[in-house]
Design brief:
single chain; 202 residues; alpha+beta; 6-stranded mixed beta sheet; 5-stranded antiparallel beta sheet; 11 strands; 26% helix; 33% strand
């Protein structure tokens, strides 16, 4: 197993060019500023949206499906935990140190020209509303931890009793194919949109 960090970093830079063009086209009431500071990015801030009227600023964390180029998946993986140097680390979804207001989920990333991303979909998710919705359904960092501690920890899909795995979501453990061995909460994008916590930007 290999870490694809450098490759992903190059892809992220190329993808940012496409995303910026979409922000300029589709976001009418906000100015945006892309953050280059690594410390800010580690706090979950890739872009700042500033309301043109009120001046209120929102921190956006961009999450892209860079492992699935030229595919249009109906789900997105929210990170619960991962390994770094064989030490378990908290994933970004329930990490209280993150300053993220909204996630920009980048899916359906197509590369119809060499080394150029030509199109993608962007779904904006209200982080606070997402965590509240999950809590209402009985899904929290604690409930996932309890479910996980009683699991045999196989690679692949793990069903949560609190969610309909076909229409809402489930846990997925990437034990065999990723060096970081992330544990993710995989949620249906339509589930997020239909519950009013996400909107499709484009």
């Amino acid at each position: 197993m290999k870490s694809h960090f450098k490759s992903d970093l190059n892809k992220e830079k190329r993808l940012a060019l496409l995303i910026d063009s979409y922000y300029l086209k589709y976001i009418q009431y906000y100015n945006y500023h892309r953050i280059g500071d690594i410390e800010k990015q580690l706090e979950g801030i890739d872009v700042l949206f500033t309301n043109k009227i009120s001046g209120k600023i929102y921190a956006i964390d961009e999450k892209a499906q860079l492992d699935y180029i030229n595919e249009d998946l109906p789900t997105f993986a929210f990170e619960i935990s991962y390994l770094k140097n064989n030490i378990a680390k908290k994933g970004w979804l329930f990490d209280l140190s993150k300053k993220t207001d909204f996630y920009a989920l980048i899916t359906a990333i197509y590369e119809d020209e060499p080394d150029t991303f030509t199109s993608c979909k962007i779904t904006i998710v209200n982080r606070k509303k997402l965590i509240c919705l999950l809590k209402e359904k009985g899904v929290s960092e604690l409930s996932i931890s309890k479910r996980w501690s009683h699991s045999k920890k196989p690679h692949g899909k793990i069903i949560l009793n609190e969610l309909d795995s076909r229409s809402e979501g489930y846990i997925y453990y990437s034990k065999n194919n990723k060096v970081e061995k992330p544990l993710n909460l995989v949620l249906k994008l339509d589930f997020l949109i239909n519950n009013g916590i996400a909107k499709r930007l484009c």
